[in-house]
Amino acid sequence: MNSSLLAIEFLVVVLGLGILLADLWIPSGARRGLAYAAATGLLLVLTLHGGALAPGDDTAFGGMFLVDALANYFKTLFIVATIAVLLISSGYADRLDGYGEYVALTLFALAGMLLAASANDFILMFVALELVTVTFYVLVSFQRRRQSSLEAGVKYLIFGALAAAFMVYGIALIFGSANTTNFYEIASRQAELGKSPVFVIGLLLTLVGLGFKISAFPFQMWTPDVYQGAPVPTTAFLATGSKAAGFVLLLRLAYSVVPEVMARWSHLLLGFAMATMLYGSFAALAQRSVKRLMGYSSIANAGYLLLGIGATNVTGSTAILYFLSGYVFTTLAAFAVISRVTVQDDNDDISVFAGLGNRSPLLAAAMTLALVSLAGIPPLAGFFGKFYLFKAALLQVPTSPLFLVAVLIACVSVVLSLYYYFNIIRVMYWPAQDAVDRPVTVPMAVGISLAACLAGILVVGIFPSGVIGLAHEAVAGLGTPAPEMHVQAHHAAAH
Amino acid sequence: MLAFPLYLCFASALGLLLWRRTASRLPHWITLATCGLGLLLTVTAVIQRTPGAEVVTLVRLPWIPTWGAEFHLAADGLSASLLVLTGIASVGGVLFSWNVQDRPGEFFSLYLTLIGAVYGVFLSWDLLLFFVFYELAIIPKYLLIARWGSTRRDYAAMKLALYSFLGSAAVLVGIVALYATSGLNTLDLSALARHSFPPSTQAWAFPVLFAGFAILAGLWPLHTWAPTGHVAAPTAASMLLAGVIMKLGAYGCLRIALPLLPEGARESRFVFGVLAVAGIVWGALVALRQRDFKFVIGYSSVSHMGFVILGLAMATPLALSGAVLQMISHGIIAGLLFAVVGRMVYDRTHTRDLEELGAHRLGKTLPFAAVTFVLAGFASMGVPGFSGFIAELQILLGTWPVSGRLVAVAGFGILLGAAYVLRAVHLGFFRGDDSPPLEALAPPAPITVPEVLGSGLLLVSTVGLGLFPGFVLDWIQPALAGPFFDGLRRVMVP
Lengths: 495, 494
Known about the structure:
The complex is a heterodimer.
Chain A: H1 7-25, H2 32-50, E1 58-60, E2 65-67, H3 69-90, H4 99-118, H5 122-140, H6 147-178, H7 183-188, H8 190-193, H9 197-214, H10 222-229, H11 232-257, H12 259-264, H13 266-285, H14 290-311, H15 314-342, H16 356-359, H17 361-374, H18 381-395, H19 402-429, H20 444-462, H21 465-476, H22 484-494
Antiparallel strand pairs in A: 1-2
Chain B: H1 4-18, H2 26-48, E1 56-64, E2 69-75, H3 77-95, H4 104-123, H5 127-136, H6 138-148, H7 153-182, H8 189-194, H9 199-216, H10 225-232, H11 235-260, H12 262-267, H13 269-288, H14 293-314, H15 317-349, H16 354-357, H17 362-365, H18 367-381, H19 387-399, H20 404-428, H21 449-467, H22 470-480, H23 486-491
Antiparallel strand pairs in B: 1-2
């Protein structure tokens, strides 16, 4: 038993429980200290993750749990995102009743994401995703006195349950045809399994479940409503952690478990990618609610990322990892600003950004940087991510001209996105007549997380080499055949 | 030394942005010093070592090794001549924005970012770096117009940003396609120029790349961002937009699309030639009917840039040399015209309506503006002795072996050019009737020293270039005859 492989997950859960307990002892005025404590704890976990506890590639629990470079890459990403989300949420502490629970739930969601990154079995994948989703039901509806928050929670619950149903049905079909749920075993028999219609349908249904998580068209319906209704820190977490968790599983399935089946489906995936990009960008054009707009933007970005899945080459998987790193920093920076601007009267209409250039030049500049990066303008992270994804897709043009069409559609979507991103920039710098001339306060914790995210945007953008190198290492092991001993060990355990 | 202006601009821009509490004139002086020093350094560098065919590497550092991208700045005669243009236009721009009082720190910070990006484009020898600078120019452009602009600035700024972005999206597809299909894993321009791409790739990649770039150069029928953008922009931004930004697109065609994809260029030369000529005539005809003085100049830019695109599409050595010369010449003349209309006339009379301007009798009350405009107008019409003449002549001569019909139609465009300039001179400055009497008119604010200096700089440049074109042609023609354009010359033998 290699339980030590789970040290990170274990520590995060313990940290969460500790927060729950501490919540009982701490006076209600000092609750935001819990977020700082959790963030510090996570920072420690992150250091351990990179240093003393850095595990080698191995599996545990009869091959269910896998630690490899890909898992480690995503775990780092999840922990970094959670730290930023916690710091952003600390500025929201007095708006969220029972803030201690909010912090603990965020940590539990993180534990789910960490498990998802390491899932090497359809069962663990399902359990990990449900852990994430169920905690998010609560995180989304945490502002119990606000109707829109509750409404968003119910919507997320209904769609999440639907997605879970799809996925569990799919997993049942997969198990029925393959007689196993282990990724390695399925990978070694994919040529034979790929011919079984039951297996293929099961896989498709599983993909539908993941499609909900990453908000791919046509499973994106919940996204705008939930993004708008949820408290800002939750929205930020949904847009980064939850989405990345969907993508790590999608990557594993597409590149490691059933690459041959996925390669046959590249047209299907491209179709989804194109529809997702276009839907996200067109729907965002008319939005006035900034959180809703970020929801549509998140849909469009899922579309760009799907290009990388559809490309099914090493460039594609590396590009996804690189894009996601930049995207996490960019999105968190944007939400950090949104959280400060909208906090006072819980209104996220674009008009509350009016004149931000005068009210808080630093926040306005940070938002501009984040939006410009999202729009994909160099030399920021968003641009290089798109560049990389486009390269991955264009490398496949010789196999099918549809890849060229997909890239051109992605360009259309990028141009459209410029319109709605620049619209916010325009509003911020406009000498507005009706602007509330209220200064915006930035607590230090939010400031720190914002500064870190901005540094991330710039560093990932201007010096992409480092992250690309890491991403390259992370995907290097994907698609290589499963090590024999683990499969045998699992057989032994099963019999 | 050629690379210093680039760093200088970005450093000053950052300084102006961070150091917010600036006295009212200090940002102006800092910007003038930066641009002036930039021009001085560029000119010194080209005097020390006459640029030509040789590609002189200025900086070459590894940037993203896995992609083969480098921070590679290099220049040959083409880049050098456009760098000098950028220097002149940037100094002119500051001198004509000496009266900016609304947040000058931010204004000039954006202005310098824009100039820095332009320097960067002209110096980049790496495709990715090129694209980074190319796109970097969009944001300051947008903010300058949206924040400091006039007529329908909101609409114009967004329109300009979207068209630019559409163009650069196409450029990005083209660049990534070149990069991905070459199989060399390099973004180095020289290496890619030596590689011969399969004709099937060239056939689709060239139109995408050329059209993407040409949108920024005002390719008809995607030119409509240009007049609205020019009109809405503050004077300095109009001068830069028409003066150097539109040249970025043309430079991209010349530096990337043509030499890397010569066979694609030959296949689609006639299509783009027709579009270019359509732009020449269309722009001129529309300019002839405008009431807004700035729109006249805006559409004249479309018409003149049509000549540049025509020269590029034909891609014969003479046509290319003419296109580059026209880029420089139009950069100076358009800057001057916008300076007269936007700064000298509009800031004093607060109208640009040609019907109303007659009542101001500017020929009498602002003789300096009138004389400058008449001289710039002559240059724009292509009167011999000014730079426009040599440039357009070369383009037409270079086009002749390919298609006489295109030359005939483009020549008609030159006639129309004379017509709209004369109409603007007449309506704007010399209406001829004596009403209202001079005594009844409030005298406009006198012409300031920076305006005189700016006009002087630009006028001397255009006349100098017209009388001694050899000075610049000696940089351009060897560069076009150099090894970088070998592939293009082989394919384009008439």
